[in-house]
Specification:
It is built from nine helices and two strands; from the N terminus they run αααββαααααα. By secondary structure, it is mainly α. The chain has a two-stranded antiparallel ribbon with strand order 1-2. α4 packs antiparallel against α9, α5 packs antiparallel against α6 and α5 packs antiparallel against α8. The protein is globular and about 50 Å long.
Length: about 240
């Protein structure tokens, strides 16, 4: 059973976070959720007629949604050959890891320097929510609850940088990374261990230990990417 909280998958323009959600935006969020969870499988052909019937939408917003997801790298589109869900590859996973080490860390360093009290309050709240998610008793919805809280935590980490394009790029990389995490084997450690790892990063940030926070975030990415790469190789 899936927790259909599609609003959590809407990636808003950081310049206009309160903008009205259009039909295409909501449909994009639903499809993004399906891709990240693996309901739409890597390498699967995008069947517009089937999706139009399944989601009860017209062709125009569906094509716009697919186009947006293609820009995000979740869908591959070729002229005259249609679209497919992006495959999971070691090459892409490695690139995602290298980019996050640079881009998210840049955003984090800038956020620590520029973020104010409101940003720090938002980060504390996101950390509390992530802790609650790690303790969730709703087994049927657990991974979805954790994934949503995990996304909000990483968004909170970078949102204080006050650079809309950088924030948007960080969140796109997060989605690409999260797709691998959600579709490969569960982590070897417990979610309580994962929570403590994130809490440690938040503590360094809130105490303005910039270099230590940056290094902890880099190590977090390195650890996850290495584990996912091993799982992907074993699955091949």
């Amino acid at each position: 059973m899936v927790l259909d909280n599609y609003k959590a998958y809407i990636r808003r323009n950081p310049d206009a976070p309160d903008a009205k959600t259009t039909r295409a935006s909501f449909l994009t969020a639903r499809l993004r959720a399906a891709i990240l969870r693996g309901d739409l499988k890597p390498g699967q052909k995008v069947n517009l007629d089937r999706l139009r019937e399944e989601y009860d939408v017209s062709l125009s917003p569906l094509r716009e949604a697919i186009s947006r997801l293609s820009i995000d790298g979740l869908v591959h589109t070729q002229d005259q050959r249609g679209s497919t869900i992006a495959p999971l590859t070691l090459c892409e996973l490695s690139e995602i890891g290298r980019l996050r080490r640079e881009v998210d860390v840049l955003a984090l360093r800038t956020a620590i320097a520029c973020g104010g009290a409101a940003w720090r309050s938002e980060l504390r709240s996101a950390a509390v929510d992530l802790h609650s998610a790690s303790q969730s008793a709703e087994a049927d919805h657990f991974d979805e609850i954790w994934s949503i809280a995990h996304t909000e935590f990483h968004k909170a980490l970078v949102s204080g940088c006050q650079m809309p394009m950088l924030i948007a790029f960080c969140m796109n990389l997060h989605d690409l990374h999260d797709r691998y995490r959600r579709q490969l084997s569960p982590p070897s450690g417990s979610y309580s261990d994962l929570w403590r790892e994130h809490a440690e990063i938040a503590s360094y940030v809130l105490n303005e230990n910039t270099d230590v926070a940056a290094l902890a975030l880099q190590k977090h990415f390195d650890k996850e990417i290495a584990a996912l790469a091993e799982q992907l190789e074993n699955a091949s």
